[in-house]
Amino acid sequence: MLHKKDTSVVTLALLCALAAAEQPAAASTFAAVLAQTPTPTPTALPSQSTVPGVTKLRIVSSSSMEKFNAALKQRFEQQFPGKEVTIGYGDAAAALRAVRQEQADLAAIGRPLTRREKARGLVEVPVTRNKIAIVVGANNPFTGSLTDQQFAQIFRGEIQDWSVVGGAPGRIRVIDRPETSDIRQTLREYPVFQPARFYTGVTAVKLSEDTTQAVIRELGNDGIGIAIADEVLNQPGIRVLPMHQTTPDDPRYPFSQRLFYVYKKTNTSAPLQNFLAYATATQGQSAIAEARTVIAAATPAATPLPATAAPGATIPPQPLTPAA
Fold first, then answer.
1. CATH classification at residue 108
2. What Rg, from alpha-carbon coordinates, does the chain have?
3. Are residues 307 and 178 part of one domain?
4. Do residues 137 and 14 share a domain?
5. Are 192 and 32 in contact (CB under 8 A)?
6. N or C: which end of the chain has fewer CB within 10 A?
7. 154 and 232 housed in the same domain
8. Measured distance CA(252)–CA(266) in Å, rounded
9. Is 62 within 8 Å of 90 (Cβ atoms)?
10. What confidence tens digit (pLDDT) does each residue in 243-296 have?
11. Dihedral angle sign, alpha carbons of residues 22, 251, 175, 210
């Protein structure tokens, strides 16, 4: 059991995080406000006495949180000897199901909860966010900038030729991540995607593998896709498209992905509360920042291949090409 004094520290951390999660995003075409909603303000780290006894915390995670989970696990276990964090991986749906069924204490996912999920007793705590980059192959003749409205129309297949957005005539192929992809589902949050049904149209090439490498392999000279900016800024053979004349390192670049830990409201265990307090404290946020700096270097390189998949095709998972 946590002492009353210690519980207040944890409660403060969670209240700060939850308050950040509930901030409404202003609806604007440019979507800059939603893309830049602050991550939780670092809070005081729980003292050693607030993590009593031998504890074990079970996390099931989507791939979006892999590097950050590892960094937090390492730091948490180093700072609090005898505390064990176990991590398993699946998609967001599997992670949330494990928490609901009490097979895990935390789900780590790259999208906010739906109203239905919240109604089923799940609570989200924001941890950090990733910028989402719009990418094309390095030899794609389109060298202009897109608006968020144009990208939404391309995504839905309403714009099918590069000439419509100021490029040379030529077909557009949308390299579409699996429907369970966290990064893909993030786009639903943005007002520009909400007036119409969220789907990709006849220009889409469906991927079975939710990785940046799979997107890169299929871009060719006419494809367009989405990726975590940290994973593509140093990748050979691809370009990040400007949006509204800005790049992902500019606060005005419109799209980003919020990352969350999710727990069951009825789970009030000390290991859970203390790990969440650690993740949102200064030390936890420092671990996340350090992990972000090595993500690009740790992302396996992939070589863009000549475009062979026609729109409507589904691409099965493929082995990665080792970096030279």
1. 3.40.190.10
2. 20
3. yes
4. no
5. no
6. C
7. yes
8. 39
9. yes
10. 999 999 898 999 999 999 999 999 988 889 889 999 999 999 999 998 888 765
11. negative
